[in-house]
Amino acid sequence: HALRPSSGAQRARLETDLEALLEAEGLAARPGPRVRVDPAAVAVLREGILACRKVAFTYRGRLDPTARERVVEPYGFLYGTRPYLVARREGAEGFRHYRLQGISEARLTDEPFTREQGFTIEAHARRCFGTFLEEPFDVVWRFRPSAARDAAEYVFHPDQRVETDAEGGLIVRFRAGGALEMAWHLLTWGDAVEVLEPPDFWQRAEASRARFA
User: What is the overall mean pLDDT for the chain?
Assistant: First the structure.
Protein backbone atom coordinates (compact mmCIF):
# COMPACT_ATOMS: atom_id res chain seq x y z
CA HIS A 1 0.00 0.00 0.00
CA ALA A 2 1.18 3.55 -0.70
CA LEU A 3 2.20 5.56 2.33
CA ARG A 4 -0.13 8.43 3.16
CA PRO A 5 0.35 11.37 5.53
CA SER A 6 -1.18 10.54 8.90
CA SER A 7 -2.18 14.06 9.88
CA GLY A 8 -3.26 17.40 8.50
CA ALA A 9 0.04 18.90 9.65
CA GLN A 10 2.03 16.33 7.66
CA ARG A 11 -0.10 16.88 4.57
CA ALA A 12 0.38 20.64 4.85
CA ARG A 13 4.15 20.16 5.12
CA LEU A 14 4.24 17.94 2.03
CA GLU A 15 2.18 20.45 0.07
CA THR A 16 4.51 23.28 1.11
CA ASP A 17 7.59 21.24 0.15
CA LEU A 18 6.06 20.48 -3.24
CA GLU A 19 5.25 24.15 -3.84
CA ALA A 20 8.86 25.11 -3.02
CA LEU A 21 10.17 22.42 -5.38
CA LEU A 22 7.90 23.54 -8.22
CA GLU A 23 9.03 27.15 -7.76
CA ALA A 24 12.70 26.12 -7.73
CA GLU A 25 12.17 24.17 -10.96
CA GLY A 26 10.56 27.18 -12.62
CA LEU A 27 7.21 25.40 -12.90
CA ALA A 28 5.26 27.64 -10.53
CA ALA A 29 5.10 31.30 -9.52
CA ARG A 30 3.38 33.36 -6.83
CA PRO A 31 1.39 36.29 -8.24
CA GLY A 32 0.48 39.34 -6.20
CA PRO A 33 2.36 41.85 -4.08
CA ARG A 34 5.30 40.87 -1.93
CA VAL A 35 7.72 42.77 0.26
CA ARG A 36 11.36 43.40 -0.64
CA VAL A 37 13.79 41.52 1.59
CA ASP A 38 17.58 41.84 1.74
CA PRO A 39 18.89 38.41 0.61
CA ALA A 40 22.27 39.05 2.27
CA ALA A 41 20.54 39.59 5.61
CA VAL A 42 18.50 36.42 5.18
CA ALA A 43 21.68 34.46 4.44
CA VAL A 44 23.27 35.71 7.68
CA LEU A 45 20.14 34.88 9.68
CA ARG A 46 20.04 31.40 8.15
CA GLU A 47 23.66 30.80 9.13
CA GLY A 48 22.92 31.93 12.68
CA ILE A 49 19.97 29.52 12.90
CA LEU A 50 21.98 26.56 11.63
CA ALA A 51 25.07 27.34 13.74
CA CYS A 52 23.13 28.39 16.88
CA ARG A 53 24.97 31.70 17.01
CA LYS A 54 23.48 35.05 17.93
CA VAL A 55 23.02 37.62 15.19
CA ALA A 56 23.07 41.40 15.38
CA PHE A 57 21.19 43.71 13.01
CA THR A 58 19.61 47.10 12.59
CA TYR A 59 15.83 46.92 12.90
CA ARG A 60 13.02 49.25 11.91
CA GLY A 61 9.55 48.32 13.12
CA ARG A 62 6.32 48.91 11.24
CA LEU A 63 4.93 51.34 13.79
CA ASP A 64 8.31 52.59 15.02
CA PRO A 65 10.59 53.30 12.02
CA THR A 66 13.46 54.42 14.28
CA ALA A 67 16.57 52.35 13.53
CA ARG A 68 17.51 50.27 16.58
CA GLU A 69 20.26 47.74 17.16
CA ARG A 70 19.13 44.24 18.09
CA VAL A 71 21.03 41.14 19.16
CA VAL A 72 18.88 38.01 19.01
CA GLU A 73 18.91 34.23 19.07
CA PRO A 74 17.44 33.23 15.68
CA TYR A 75 15.19 30.16 15.52
CA GLY A 76 13.51 30.15 12.12
CA PHE A 77 11.39 31.95 9.53
CA LEU A 78 7.67 32.32 8.97
CA TYR A 79 6.60 32.99 5.40
CA GLY A 80 3.19 34.41 4.56
CA THR A 81 2.09 37.70 3.07
CA ARG A 82 4.76 39.18 5.34
CA PRO A 83 7.90 37.13 6.09
CA TYR A 84 9.20 37.16 9.66
CA LEU A 85 12.20 36.01 11.67
CA VAL A 86 11.31 34.06 14.82
CA ALA A 87 13.86 34.86 17.51
CA ARG A 88 14.54 35.46 21.18
CA ARG A 89 15.88 38.85 22.15
CA GLU A 90 18.66 39.29 24.69
CA GLY A 91 17.23 40.10 28.11
CA ALA A 92 13.62 39.35 27.12
CA GLU A 93 11.39 36.34 27.68
CA GLY A 94 9.53 34.47 24.98
CA PHE A 95 9.78 34.64 21.21
CA ARG A 96 9.31 37.66 18.99
CA HIS A 97 8.60 38.06 15.28
CA TYR A 98 10.81 40.49 13.35
CA ARG A 99 9.75 41.68 9.90
CA LEU A 100 12.41 40.61 7.42
CA GLN A 101 11.97 43.82 5.42
CA GLY A 102 12.82 45.75 8.59
CA ILE A 103 16.17 43.99 9.05
CA SER A 104 19.39 45.41 7.61
CA GLU A 105 23.13 45.23 8.26
CA ALA A 106 22.81 41.72 9.69
CA ARG A 107 26.01 40.19 11.01
CA LEU A 108 26.90 36.95 12.72
CA THR A 109 28.37 37.20 16.22
CA ASP A 110 30.84 34.83 17.85
CA GLU A 111 28.45 34.20 20.73
CA PRO A 112 26.66 30.82 20.68
CA PHE A 113 23.28 30.12 22.23
CA THR A 114 21.44 26.98 23.33
CA ARG A 115 18.18 26.34 21.53
CA GLU A 116 15.08 25.80 23.62
CA GLN A 117 14.62 22.07 24.01
CA GLY A 118 11.76 20.70 21.95
CA PHE A 119 11.27 23.84 19.85
CA THR A 120 10.21 23.32 16.24
CA ILE A 121 9.24 26.03 13.80
CA GLU A 122 6.24 23.92 12.74
CA ALA A 123 4.85 23.80 16.29
CA HIS A 124 5.47 27.52 16.73
CA ALA A 125 3.68 28.28 13.46
CA ARG A 126 0.62 26.36 14.63
CA ARG A 127 0.18 28.96 17.38
CA CYS A 128 -0.60 31.53 14.68
CA PHE A 129 -3.24 31.82 11.98
CA GLY A 130 -0.84 33.95 9.95
CA THR A 131 2.41 35.56 11.05
CA PHE A 132 1.23 37.93 13.80
CA LEU A 133 2.21 36.60 17.21
CA GLU A 134 -0.67 36.50 19.70
CA GLU A 135 -1.79 34.20 22.50
CA PRO A 136 -3.81 31.36 20.91
CA PHE A 137 -7.56 31.13 21.52
CA ASP A 138 -10.32 28.69 20.52
CA VAL A 139 -12.01 29.46 17.21
CA VAL A 140 -15.26 28.13 15.74
CA TRP A 141 -16.48 29.22 12.30
CA ARG A 142 -19.66 28.16 10.50
CA PHE A 143 -19.88 28.29 6.71
CA ARG A 144 -23.36 28.41 5.19
CA PRO A 145 -24.49 25.32 3.25
CA SER A 146 -24.02 27.25 -0.01
CA ALA A 147 -20.31 27.72 0.80
CA ALA A 148 -19.67 24.47 2.70
CA ARG A 149 -18.32 22.52 -0.26
CA ASP A 150 -15.88 25.28 -1.18
CA ALA A 151 -14.78 25.78 2.44
CA ALA A 152 -14.19 22.04 2.87
CA GLU A 153 -11.39 22.29 0.30
CA TYR A 154 -9.41 24.68 2.52
CA VAL A 155 -6.92 23.92 5.27
CA PHE A 156 -7.46 26.94 7.50
CA HIS A 157 -5.17 25.52 10.18
CA PRO A 158 -3.06 22.32 10.37
CA ASP A 159 -4.90 21.16 13.50
CA GLN A 160 -8.41 22.07 12.37
CA ARG A 161 -11.41 19.83 13.03
CA VAL A 162 -14.37 20.00 10.68
CA GLU A 163 -17.91 18.67 10.81
CA THR A 164 -21.17 19.14 8.93
CA ASP A 165 -24.19 20.33 10.89
CA ALA A 166 -27.80 19.24 10.43
CA GLU A 167 -28.48 22.03 7.94
CA GLY A 168 -25.48 21.21 5.75
CA GLY A 169 -23.26 23.98 7.05
CA LEU A 170 -19.56 23.36 7.69
CA ILE A 171 -18.21 23.87 11.21
CA VAL A 172 -14.46 24.52 11.49
CA ARG A 173 -12.66 24.45 14.84
CA PHE A 174 -9.04 25.18 15.70
CA ARG A 175 -6.90 27.04 18.22
CA ALA A 176 -4.55 29.84 17.16
CA GLY A 177 -3.72 33.51 17.61
CA GLY A 178 -3.95 36.19 14.95
CA ALA A 179 -7.43 37.71 15.15
CA LEU A 180 -6.66 40.46 12.64
CA GLU A 181 -5.40 38.08 9.97
CA MET A 182 -8.41 35.84 10.58
CA ALA A 183 -10.68 38.85 10.09
CA TRP A 184 -8.95 39.75 6.82
CA HIS A 185 -9.54 36.22 5.56
CA LEU A 186 -13.13 35.98 6.80
CA LEU A 187 -14.05 39.18 4.97
CA THR A 188 -13.21 37.47 1.66
CA TRP A 189 -16.10 35.06 2.33
CA GLY A 190 -18.65 37.84 2.82
CA ASP A 191 -21.82 36.67 4.58
CA ALA A 192 -21.09 33.01 3.78
CA VAL A 193 -19.35 32.56 7.15
CA GLU A 194 -20.07 33.52 10.73
CA VAL A 195 -17.88 33.39 13.83
CA LEU A 196 -19.45 31.29 16.58
CA GLU A 197 -16.51 31.50 18.98
CA PRO A 198 -15.08 33.51 20.57
CA PRO A 199 -18.08 35.82 21.08
CA ASP A 200 -15.79 38.86 21.24
CA PHE A 201 -13.89 37.95 18.06
CA TRP A 202 -14.42 41.24 16.22
CA GLN A 203 -13.36 43.22 19.29
CA ARG A 204 -10.20 41.11 19.40
CA ALA A 205 -9.58 41.84 15.73
CA GLU A 206 -9.98 45.57 16.31
CA ALA A 207 -7.54 45.43 19.23
CA SER A 208 -5.09 43.55 17.01
CA ARG A 209 -5.48 46.16 14.28
CA ALA A 210 -4.42 48.84 16.75
CA ARG A 211 -1.26 46.85 17.54
CA PHE A 212 -0.24 45.53 14.13
CA ALA A 213 -1.90 47.46 11.30
Answer: 88
